[in-house]
Amino acid sequence: LPPPPWGFETLERPGVDLLVRLLQCCRDQGIEHGAELLRAFEEDSAYPALLKLFSEGSSATPESLAGTLQESIQRLAEEHRRERRSQLAARADRGELSTEEAAELRRLLKR
Fold first, then answer.
1. Could you tell me if 4 and 26 are in contact, meaning their C-beta atoms sit under 8 angstroms apart?
2. Is the Cβ–Cβ distance between 16 and 76 less than 8 Å?
3. Whole-angstrom Cα distance, residue 64 to residue 53?
4. What is the pTM for the complete model shown?
5. d(Cα 7, Cα 23) in Å, to the nearest integer?
6. How confident is the model over 93-103, as a mean pLDDT?
7. Rounded Cα–Cα distance for residues 99 and 106 (Å)
8. How far apart are CA 57 and CA 35, in angstroms?
9. Percent of the chain with pLDDT over 90
């Protein structure tokens, strides 16, 4: 699991906040197996959704799940960069960018 920040934490999509919490839990508690993660979230309101998610992926191997997770993190980070670039470009068009935002937009446009 790559260290935070993952690059998508502020992406406004359903489930992103839960994914961030799951990743943080795995890193903070050294969780390596799905059953451990489920136990850690047993009292959480997200538990039913996690249970469903784990049951749908029950035939996957740990290696394939790790690859899928890594790809998902990269895809979400790229989606966040595109979203942020669009937000900043719209602010630039309206002449509302701060100095810090202008620098951020330049960095995002270089990628």
1. no
2. yes
3. 15
4. 0.70
5. 13
6. 95
7. 11
8. 13
9. 38
Tokens representing 53 are 């998610």
Q: Which has more pLDDT, 70 or 60?
A: 70
Residues 51 and 35: beta-carbon distance below 8 Å: no
pLDDT at 1 over 80: no
57 in Cβ contact with 35 (< 8 Å): no
Q: Tokens 């059953």 map to which residue?
A: 35
- pLDDT tens per residue, range 54-68: 777 666 666 666 677
Name the residue with tokens 């942020």. Answer: 84
Contact 27, 43 (CB under 8 A): no
Q: How far apart are CA 12 and CA 96, in angstroms?
A: 21
Residue 89 vs residue 52, higher pLDDT: 89
Determine phi and psi for 45, rounding to 5 degrees.
-65, -20
Question: In angstroms, rounded to a whole number, what is the distance separating the alpha carbons of residues 13 and 92?
Answer: 24
Return the SS3 of 33: coil
Per-residue exposure over 17-46, b if at least 16 CB sit within 10 Å of its own CB, e if not: ebbbebbebbeeeebeebeebbebbeeeee
